[in-house]
Specification:
230 residues, alpha/beta, binds CO-5-methoxybenzimidazolylcobamide
Length: 230
């Protein structure tokens, strides 16, 4: 039996367990991630802390080795699968706030891009904060965004892009909204690892959101301003 087989996750203290979660995420061990998430919750960790301090941080480490050519797509897919297992446990806990509806957001990853973990996280946190969220998934052409905004009578458009090659597509969406005369009908928020504030301004978005928590705060802020104008 290997040392790994002997490891009893519930016997680790919090710091050791979080370090073990980084390893398990790295190795795509979805069952172990699920078990550890449940252990931390039983130890009265806040769901948001489990998400950010264990899962998101673990994925950041995966990203570094992916960038450096130490991990490859199949391994990163396994890691992403493990991350999603953990997020599935946390989702209902993050959402059960019972807050009144603050507004409606349509969100999706842009055309050519299949990264969805960050977008899912934003959707989860927005729902948790009391927004209604319509998630269009990945690889969205401009037509899909516009159709959903109209059909759903949304207040906010959220776009996510993780690749430097796909982030310019956000401008295509915003330019099409301008051409159709509907740009100012919606609050446009953008996010994703390669973006920054300057890019958000340059493409005509209302705001760039560094992470899910900032997305929630920014959306609340804009909705408050919108209501004050009415
Ligand atoms: Co991809 N990938 N990937 N990948 N991948 C990156 C993005 C990369 C930075 C890795 C690297 O080289 N270090 C790199 C991009 C380089 C670049 O463009 N400069 C890269 C590459 C190159 C690729 C491929 C091209 C690899 C290949 O095929 N050779 C390929 C592209 C596929 C495609 O999309 N067409 C590819 C594929 C994949 C997988 C499928 C294996 C997998 C995705 C699985 C999935 O999402 N279901 C994957 C993963 C997992 C990553 C990394 C490792 C992790 C991304 C992630 O989930 N992060 C990533 C490295 C990295 O980002 N460090 C990488 C965790 C997540 C919580 O953070 O998504 O940033 P993030 O979301 C944050 C904020 O950005 C923000 O809030 C979130 C939560 O706080 N945010 C928003 C995000 N969206 C928002 C929207 C908003 C607001 C805030 O709207 C309002």
């Amino acid at each position: 039996m290997s040392e790994e087989d002997d490891l009893i996750l519930s016997e680790l203290d919090d710091d050791e367990l979080v370090l073990q979660m980084f390893d398990d995420l790295y190795d795509g061990m979805a069952d172990e991630i699920a078990e550890s998430v449940n252990i931390l919750l039983e130890r009265k960790w806040l769901p948001y802390d489990v998400l950010t301090k264990a899962l998101v941080e673990g994925m950041r480490i995966v990203g570094i080795d992916f960038r450096d050519g130490i991990l490859f797509v199949p391994e990163v897919l396994l890691a992403a699968g493990a991350m999603k297992r953990g997020m599935k446990i946390l989702k209902p806990l993050l959402i059960e706030s019972g807050a009144p509806q603050l507004g409606k957001m349509v969100i999706g990853t842009v055309k050519g891009d299949i990264h969805d973990i960050g977008k899912n996280l934003v959707a989860m946190m927005m729902e948790g904060a009391g927004f209604e969220v319509v998630d269009l998934g990945i690889n969205n052409p401009v037509e899909d965004y516009l159709a959903a905004l109209k059909a759903e009578n949304a207040d906010i458009l959220g776009m996510s892009a993780l690749l430097t090659t796909t982030m310019p597509y956000m401008k295509t969406v915003i330019d099409t909204m301008i051409a159709e005369g509907i740009r100012d009908d919606y609050i446009v928020l953008v996010g994703g690892a390669p973006l920054n504030e300057e890019f958000g301004k340059a493409i005509g978005a209302d705001a760039y959101c560094r992470d899910a928590a900032v997305a929630v705060e920014t959306a609340k802020d804009y909705m408050a301003r919108k209501h004050n104008q009415l």
